[in-house]
Each structure stands twice: as structure tokens, then as C-alpha cells.
Specification:
With 608 residues, the protein is of the alpha+beta class. It is 23% helix and 19% strand. It is built from 15 helices and 20 strands. The strands form 4 sheets. Strands 3, 14, 15, 16, 17, 18, 19 and 20 form an 8-stranded mixed sheet that branches. The longest helix has 20 residues. It is globular, with a radius of gyration of 28 Å. The N and C termini lie far apart (105 Å).
């Protein structure tokens, strides 16, 4: 007779997270960062906050200058898409309102009420594929919520009968919002026409509920008084990332600083003897290490000196980045020949044989660069401006101030161009050039936009000047021209502007997360024998636009009227290429216009 079986108690397993999809690391900083909505399969999600990210528990990415400016101890690379679910970025289902087209009533209800089988986006009753709500609501303070369908349908009336159930149908008569009708089982119905108006939700008594679904369902922020706007689920206005970046420049471009930077937090306030002892125990010096004890101590001293002079600055979120102190340091280094670690910069090899193009006093080929990009915060509804208050920027975590931020490092190449300061100053100050008058138009509109965002605070001075519009427009022209010659598409090229009373330069570069960012095709364009004809071609191409004469004669274009002669046919670039959201552009200040009475800074350039 067999012995009786003994029952064993099993420890319940913690359910493993389901992998919903994959995106590239860089996209988790620039496109699908914390708080953004992303479609994965047939469902829609919002990317979760940093508290729930399953990543390394310590910063693995060091960029000293950016750390000091943002007041964090380092940056963490988002998990790569090919890692197992244990290392991942969480997503939360949003919006949670779904419809089932297979249901003859097109019922509109929460996802869980369809009893969808695990891992399948299907209605349990009819096996129809579920569709997420097309509409959400958001406010300019970063809050996000479901569209209030019930309030929209019953505006000004009370629901009759017992429990109400909503349904969603498209009449098919047109693609307009009036063809989308929301109905209630009580008999009330309303189309979506007018839902996108500025006062549409206020008119039905709906106010912001402070929703923050990327943090938690119960993480709503109380007391928000901002107007709520209706948005399409995939609208670009639903998420504006605030991405900060810095180039690794000497001395911090040396690989030694990457190593020492990981331990700087514990070495910042201790003696050199302690640093030396711990460096030996960590095998940073001695043995097979490539560094000596003195090199480590010198690096720590340099970091201490930098940290003392670079206290966290709250203006880094809203300040004008092209004039930031980080840019000033880079501008100085880009003007000299350097070859240290991640940074290699040198004048073109034909500098002694070919003269510089007229209007420039320095051209440098940057054959090796490293850029660190960091997601600091984000906004919704309206792109950030210099006058925005701190409450406009949404948190990335439930804690008020995380000590790390998500970031990526990218490698690339580029060409640095610096304008002749004397010639630039003469052009700016010459009343007959017409440049000052055109820039004043843009400046006035920018200040008006800043005032609209300010409530009881002093309006910051607009940074718009003739040189900003000139450099920005020139950068776009060069990117369009080089995309034809360098082997890179325009979307793979980026601008980095250096604009202040002491700076007038631009860096056109490409940076990617692998070696494809350093193929050599772009740095080759920095040879003076190629640069001169390329600039002449860019100027000649920009003299005429297929939208002329309307484009050149435009008195206002772009967001808030912050462009003049600039449109999609001539100057506007992909969002990945432009750091100023395609505003402050005017090709007339570069190429000139007799009809508009403008003498362009480079109008003398012409094709042979």
C-alpha cells in the first residue's frame, strides 16, 4: 500500500511583468518618456514614473557639468529593448475608456468591464477587438485625464432612469467631429463638435482634476485652476519634453572622469588619503589599471572645483539654453584644437590653402564628440517658454526631487562655424540693413507670448535679437544643404546654437547611440574647399521658395507668429533637428530681399 501523500505548501509566485512592447533607449528620453502616451499593439498606455522603473539602483551615466546644473548625482540609462522583463520601464493603461466595434451598441466603458482575457485585447462577450478612446483632456500644468464623456452628453440636463451606459458611434457622413456621436441609455446624446474649443469644457462645468496617471491612479494633484483642453490621444501637444544636454568637453571628456565620477559623491568631502585608499580597494589604481593614484586625485580635485562653482540653478528649466553657461564652456573649447577622450576638434586640413568663407572667422571639424541627453521634466498643451512658472512642469516621480534622471549618451561628429564678430556687429548696428527692424517684430511677439503666460510675476526679457534669428536660420539652411551631400537625412542632423553678446556660433552635428553617428560623411563637409560652395548653394537655394511671394512677404508665421520668411518649403526642419521648436526663423536676414528692404548677412555669396 502506497504511503499517503503529504501536502506541501507552495510559496505564491510574484507575477512576472508582461512585456507590452519595445522602444529604443533614446526614445525613452525624447519621444516616449515619462508621462507620454504610447500605442503598444492595439492598446494605449502612459509611460510610468521613475519610482517604478526597473533599472540599476545607482547612476550609470556620468556627465559632471550637467549633473551640477540639474542638481542630481547622475543619470541612468533606460533599459535596452532586448533585455528581459526584469529590467524594464513600466507602462499604465491609459486611457482606460474603450469601445468594442463588434458590439452592435458600441458600448463605451472601462477596459476591465469588457472582461478581456489576459494578454488579449478582446471583448469577452463578442470577441471583438477593443479600441481605446480617441480623446483625452489635459491642462497646461501637465495634468492628464479621461475625456468626460458623461458630463459632455448630459451638459445642462440630469440623467433620467436608473444606471446610465454610454455608447460611441461614428455616423460616417464625414470625417468631422460632428459625425462622432456619444449617446446615453437615458436618451441624451451629443456630437463631439466643439469639444476642442478653448472654453468647451468650462461650459459644461468641468474643471481640472489634477490627474497624473503616469504616477498612480490616486496621484491626482489638488487645487489646479488651469483650463482643461481636449486633445487627440496621439496629439503632439499631449507631451512636450524638456530635454537638457551637454557635450563632454575637456577635461571632463577624458575617460578617467567617467570612472571617477561614479564615486565622486562619496569622495567630495573626504581627504585625499581616504580617496587614495578607496581607489586602491576599488582597483582604480595599481595593478592592471591604466590610471595612477595622482591622476585620480587630480580628477577628484577638478570635480570639486567644478561642483563648488556650479550650484544647481532652477533657471535651467526655463532659461534660454543657447546662452547657458554650459554652452559658454563648449563655445570656448570648440574654438581650439583638442583631442582628449570623447572630444576631438581640429581646423580643416586645407586651412592654409583655402580662405574662410566671407562672414566667418573660425571653422572646426569635430570628428569625435559625446553628448549626454537627459529628460528633466515635461509640459502639456503649450510648449514651454522662458516665463513659465515652476508648477507648469510635471514631476517624473512621486518624490518631489529624484536624485537621478533618465539619460542616454550618444556619439557623433560635426562641424562648428563661428561668425566674424566685427562684421556681425556692424551688420547688426547698421540701420540700413533692415535686420534690426525685422527682429524687433519677432521680439515684440515673443514678449507678448511671455506676458500671456505670466501671472503676477515679472516678465523675463526676450532673448530674440538679430544674431539669434540669423544663426538659427543659417543652421536650418546648412542642414538642408548638407543632407543632400553628407549621406545623412535632415532628420539625422541636429543644430546646437551658441548665441549671446559674446557668442555667435553654431554646431551642426549628428549623434546616435551607436557608431552610425560617426561615419565621417558630415565632418568631411567642414573642409574649406567644400564649405564655401555649399554655403553659396544654400544661400542661392534659400533666395527663392516655392511659396513665394507669400513666404517672403509674410508678416507673421509659425507658432505665436514667431517666424517671418520661413515655411515648410524652405526652412522648417523635423522636430529632432531643431532645438527651438522651429521658431525665430527668417531667411531674409541671411539672403536679403530687395522687396522687403533687407540686406542679408550672407547675400554676397553666390554660385560661381
Amino acid at each position: 500500500m502506497a504511503p499517503p501523500r503529504t501536502r506541501t505548501t507552495r510559496t505564491p509566485r510574484t507575477p512576472r511583468p508582461t512585456k507590452e512592447g519595445a522602444v529604443r533607449r533614446t526614445q525613452l528620453v525624447s519621444t516616449y518618456g515619462v508621462g507620454s502616451m504610447i500605442a503598444l499593439g492595439e492598446r494605449s498606455f502612459v509611460v510610468g514614473g521613475l519610482d517604478d522603473w526597473r533599472v540599476v539602483d545607482h547612476p550609470d551615466l556620468i556627465e559632471v557639468r550637467l549633473q551640477s546644473r540639474l542638481g542630481v548625482r547622475g543619470f541612468v540609462r533606460p533599459p535596452a529593448p532586448d533585455l528581459p522583463p526584469g529590467a524594464s520601464v513600466p507602462v499604465r493603461l491609459f486611457p482606460q475608456l474603450y469601445t468594442c466595434p463588434g458590439d452592435h451598441e458600441n458600448t463605451l466603458r472601462r477596459y476591465r468591464q469588457f472582461n478581456s482575457p489576459r494578454g488579449r485585447n478582446r471583448c469577452a462577450a463578442c470577441d471583438g477587438s477593443l479600441t481605446p478612446s480617441r480623446f483625452v483632456v489635459a491642462c497646461r500644468n501637465g495634468h492628464l485625464d479621461e475625456f468626460p464623456y458623461w458630463q459632455w452628453v448630459h451638459s445642462g440636463r440630469e440623467a433620467s432612469g436608473g444606471k446610465c451606459e454610454l455608447s460611441y458611434r461614428a455616423t460616417g457622413r464625414s470625417s468631422a467631429l460632428r459625425s462622432i456621436v456619444i449617446s446615453c441609455s437615458c436618451g441624451a446624446e451629443a456630437s463631439m463638435e466643439g469639444a476642442f474649443g478653448r472654453g468647451a469644457l468650462v461650459s459644461i462645468g468641468y474643471t481640472c482634476r489634477g490627474g497624473r496617471p503616469w504616477l498612480a491612479d490616486d496621484a491626482a494633484e489638488q487645487g489646479c485652476t488651469a483650463d482643461v483642453r481636449t486633445l487627440q490621444r496621439g496629439s503632439s501637444a499631449a507631451w512636450f519634453p524638456v530635454v537638457r544636454s551637454a557635450l563632454s568637453i575637456p577635461p571632463f571628456s577624458k575617460k578617467l572622469f567617467d570612472t571617477v565620477g561614479k564615486y565622486f559623491a562619496m569622495w567630495k568631502d573626504v581627504g585625499d588619503d581616504v580617496v587614495a585608499q578607496q581607489a586602491r580597494s576599488l582597483n582604480l589604481v595599481g595593478g592592471r589599471s591604466e590610471y595612477t593614484e595622482q591622476q585620480v586625485l587630480d580628477a577628484v580635485a577638478e570635480l570639486r572645483k567644478h561642483a563648488a562653482g556650479e550650484a544647481p540653478d532652477p533657471s535651467v528649466v526655463t532659461g534660454f539654453e543657447p546662452a547657458d553657461v554650459i554652452r559658454q564652456e563648449e563655445y570656448e573649447q570648440l574654438g581650439h584644437e583638442r583631442d582628449e577622450g570623447h572630444f576631438e576638434c581640429a581646423p580643416p586640413p586645407d586651412s592654409g590653402e583655402v580662405g574662410l568663407p566671407e562672414g566667418f572667422d573660425r571653422v572646426m571639424q569635430v570628428s569625435r564628440l559625446r553628448e549626454v541627453r537627459v529628460l528633466q521634466t515635461f509640459t502639456r498643451v503649450e510648449a514651454p517658454l522662458e516665463s513659465d512658472a515652476a508648477e507648469r512642469f510635471a514631476p517624473l516621480s512621486r518624490s518631489s526631487m529624484p536624485d537621478w534622471l533618465p539619460g542616454v549618451e550618444v556619439s557623433g561628429e560635426g562641424v562648428f562655424l563661428r561668425l566674424d564678430p566685427d562684421r556681425l556687429r556692424r551688420w547688426e548696428e547698421d540701420p540700413t540693413s533692415g535686420a534690426a527692424a525685422r527682429s524687433e517684430l519677432v521680439r515684440a511677439r515673443h514678449e507678448a507670448a511671455l506676458r500671456r503666460r505670466v501671472s503676477g510675476r515679472e516678465v523675463p526679457e526676450s532673448p530674440v535679437r538679430s544674431r539669434l534669428i540669423l544663426l538659427h536660420s543659417l543652421a536650418h539652411m546648412i542642414i538642408n544643404e548638407w543632407s543632400l551631400d553628407s549621406g545623412y537625412p535632415a532628420s539625422a542632423l541636429r543644430e546646437r546654437l551658441y548665441v549671446s553678446d559674446q557668442m555667435a556660433g553654431l554646431l551642426i552635428y549628428t549623434a546616435s547611440s551607436d557608431s552610425a553617428g560617426s561615419l565621417g560623411g558630415l565632418v568631411e563637409q567642414g573642409k574649406l574647399a567644400k564649405l564655401g560652395p555649399a554655403l553659396a548653394s544654400a544661400v542661392e537655394r534659400a533666395r527663392w521658395c516655392s511659396a513665394d511671394p507669400l513666404c517672403m512677404e509674410a508678416e507673421a508665421a509659425g507658432s505665436d507668429g514667431l517666424n517671418l520668411a520661413a515655411c515648410h518649403s524652405c526652412l522648417l526642419l523635423p522636430e529632432t533637428s531643431c532645438e527651438l521648436n522651429n521658431v525665430f526663423l527668417d531667411r531674409a536676414v541671411v539672403v536679403g530681399s530687395d522687396e522687403e528692404g533687407v540686406r542679408g548677412y550672407l547675400e554676397q555669396l553666390a554660385l560661381d
